[in-house]
Amino acid sequence: MEINNNQFPQWEVFIQTKSGSPFEHAGSVHAADKKMALQNARDTYTRRNEGRSLWVVPTDCIVATTRDEEEEFFDPSLDKTYRKPNFYKMPKGTNNL
Amino acid sequence: MTEDQKLIKFQQRIDADEKIEPKDWMPEGYHKTLFRQISQHAHSEIIGMQPEANWVLRAPSLRAKKILLAKIQDEAGHGLYLYSAAETLGLDRSEMIDMLHKGKAKYSSIFNYPVLTWADIGAVGWLVDGAAIVNQTMLAKCSYGPYARAMLRICKEEGFHQRQGYEIMAKMMNGTEAQKEMAQDAMNRWWEPSLMMFGPHDTDSPNSKDSMQWKIKVESNDRLRQRFIDRTVEQAHHIGLKVPDANLKYNKETLHWETSDINWEEFKNVVNGNGPCNHQRLSHHIKCHNEGQWVREAALAFEAKQMSNPATIK
User: Fold this and answer.
1) B247, B260 in Cβ contact below 8 A?
2) pLDDT of residue B293 exceeding 70
3) Which residues of B touch A15 (CB under 8 A)?
4) Residue B76 near residue B45 (C-beta atoms within 8 A)
5) Which residues of A touch B72 (CB under 8 A)?
6) I want to staple B115 with a disulfide (CB 3.0 to 4.6 A). Which of B120, B199, B218, B230 is the partner?
7) Within a domain: residue A35?
8) Has residue A38 been placed in a domain?
């Protein structure tokens, strides 16, 4: 690609909105290096104080499942109802359990 | 699975209001329509900065200047959210910009009209952003996850754009005779182009049927336009602005405002590149892009230098 068209590598942006909350995906930015990636992410996704902390990750480092393999991939988690508390029968009158 | 089976399964997902995500199988037409629409939308946000930037140095007060700068920065942000959503469909941003420069991708025709006075800045915020909000609120329910999420973010931010525009108009309508005239003149010039933003009538809109079936759009052009008209006519009257349409009348049975038909010849003419500012907008974008070349080169050289000396990386 000609250098004039180089828009820099792509980074995925994750925002933590407040202390203790999870980092959530917001979108992506282009940047030449880590520092520029963080600054561009700040300017693009947190103009209204939406974040207190940011992660940027090179887009090609993200590995994802697809809808096509969803059933097969997640299937083992469907048949283990004994992982849930209400699988178990408690004697009548039991409290705080 | 055969292609036909995939198509049936895809439509079932759409009908069940599931969102489609980037790596999922999708029909070619869905991919093509979405890419065209999202990239056009992104280009519109970016080109839309030009007429406003032209007024930063002429804003009538420091307050107005700060607001205008914040709005322009938002438009840049919105363009980037949308490029980011379009890139999930597998094309690089630089390819999209190349398509724009070669005339293979369009942007909203509304930005090919000149912003002549300060009242035009008010009219753009109130009418153009107002029309965009009606459209984008619908698009936030789009079946493609990344587009819908970008729209949600944009809708949250655009409320201020529309209100600041209406505030400018209201202030001028409360001012001197000359200010009132200026506001009315802006209204006269921006009203019809704003109605055109919703695109052709449903009956003349070739892409609408597929888009509705795939829930890329969940409401039709005419329905969205009517919603905008009903809201806007009343806002205009509220501050003493006249809607520049001799046939405007309220239908007490349908509870809708009725307007003259739109000048579709002009619409086609501007879409095809013959509006007052088409050439100016595109050539300015190309010029800025080329002038930024040394910045991109310098940033990449800096990164290469940092990588060759890992001790300096922060």
Assistant:
1) yes
2) yes
3) none
4) yes
5) none
6) B120
7) yes
8) yes
Cβ separation A48–B157 shorter than 8 A: yes
Q: Which residue of B has its CA nearest to A31?
A: B299
Other C-beta atoms lying within 10 Å of the C-beta of residue A44: 22
Is residue A81 in a domain? yes
Half-sphere exposure for A10 (CA within 13 Å, toward CB): 20
Please tell me which residue of chain B has the smallest CA distance to A48. B157
Put simply, the answer to whether B157 touches A44 (Cβ < 8 Å) is: no
Q: Cβ distance A45 to A26 under 8 Å? A: yes
Q: Tokens 């309220």 appear where?
A: B250
**Tokens 């052009």 -> residue:** B221
Find tokens 């695109």 and name the residue.
Answer: B199
This model of the complex carries an ipTM of 0.82
Contact B307, A13 (CB under 8 A): no
Interfacial B residues in 155-174 facing A (CB < 8 Å): 157
Instruction: Look at strands A23-30 and B249-251 and give their pairing.
Output: unpaired
- Compare CB distances from B87 to A1, A28, A32 and report the shortest one's residue: A28
Domain that holds residue A52: 3-87
Q: Does A60 touch chain B (CB under 8 A)?
A: no
CATH of the domain at A7: 3.10.20.520
Higher pLDDT, B67 or B92: B67
Tell me the chain A residues in contact with residue B73 when contact means C-beta distances shorter than 8 Å. 43, 47
Confidence bin at A1 (pLDDT 50/70/90): very low
| Smallest Cα distance from A33 to chain B, Å | 6
Instruction: Answer yes or no: is A95 within a domain.
Output: no
DSSP state of A78: T
- Taken as a whole, chain B contains a residue count of 314
Picking from B84, B290, B313, the nearest residue to A27 by CB comes out as: B84
Look at residue B273 in the predicted model and tell me its pLDDT: 85
